[in-house]
């Protein structure tokens, strides 16, 4: 599936 | 951001600082696996490729720069500055047995078959097994310096705290990333044996000494 959200975790 | 992830990042930060302090103060990298540090450098490089393209927050950018900077500095200390104290005989884990399967898995199981996404997935899978050369080295030498035990405890706690962060984010934001969660569970499980030794021994002032 599409990326749910930008990678905001380290 | 939530308290679990903040504690996780602080635990990760503490682990890296403990490791650097150990090396700098004792001017020795005895008992430290250079191979694990190389794997960690690969993880951070692959994961933070978006460092200059996507801005999340000052905190996010600073932490990424710090993690990348310190891991390469650690490799410099191990393989150059304190090379004489590096125990390459005991740091003999075959990392190609990790990189190849992890690389293949990243191609097969990912959220989106796109270069950046596959590289990110590779970094997630690789991080879950990156500590194996270090744990293998401790099992070969049969013991770990107390400061190295603190390093491993902080490093193992960071991903355990991230698991709590993902539980929280699932209920609070409906956020769920199966790949990160599964890799995080594997990563934390690999530390369980060490956590047991740490809590039963190091917390009582003893040294960790495995049956060699």
Automatic annotation (TrEMBL), chain B:
<keyword id="KW-0675">Receptor</keyword>
<dbReference type="GO" id="GO:0005789">
    <property type="term" value="C:endoplasmic reticulum membrane"/>
</dbReference>
<comment type="similarity">
    <text>Belongs to the ERD2 family.</text>
</comment>
<dbReference type="GO" id="GO:0046923">
    <property type="term" value="F:ER retention sequence binding"/>
</dbReference>
<protein>
    <recommendedName>
        <fullName>ER lumen protein-retaining receptor</fullName>
    </recommendedName>
</protein>
<feature type="transmembrane region" description="Helical">
    <location>
        <begin position="94"/>
        <end position="113"/>
    </location>
</feature>
<dbReference type="GO" id="GO:0016192">
    <property type="term" value="P:vesicle-mediated transport"/>
</dbReference>
<keyword id="KW-0472">Membrane</keyword>
<keyword id="KW-0812">Transmembrane</keyword>
<dbReference type="GO" id="GO:0006621">
    <property type="term" value="P:protein retention in ER lumen"/>
</dbReference>
<keyword id="KW-1133">Transmembrane helix</keyword>
<keyword id="KW-0931">ER-Golgi transport</keyword>
<keyword id="KW-0813">Transport</keyword>
<dbReference type="InterPro" id="IPR000133">
    <property type="entry name" value="ER_ret_rcpt"/>
</dbReference>
<keyword id="KW-0653">Protein transport</keyword>
<feature type="transmembrane region" description="Helical">
    <location>
        <begin position="65"/>
        <end position="82"/>
    </location>
</feature>
<dbReference type="Pfam" id="PF00810">
    <property type="entry name" value="ER_lumen_recept"/>
</dbReference>
<feature type="transmembrane region" description="Helical">
    <location>
        <begin position="174"/>
        <end position="199"/>
    </location>
</feature>
<feature type="transmembrane region" description="Helical">
    <location>
        <begin position="119"/>
        <end position="138"/>
    </location>
</feature>
<dbReference type="GO" id="GO:0015031">
    <property type="term" value="P:protein transport"/>
</dbReference>
<keyword id="KW-0256">Endoplasmic reticulum</keyword>
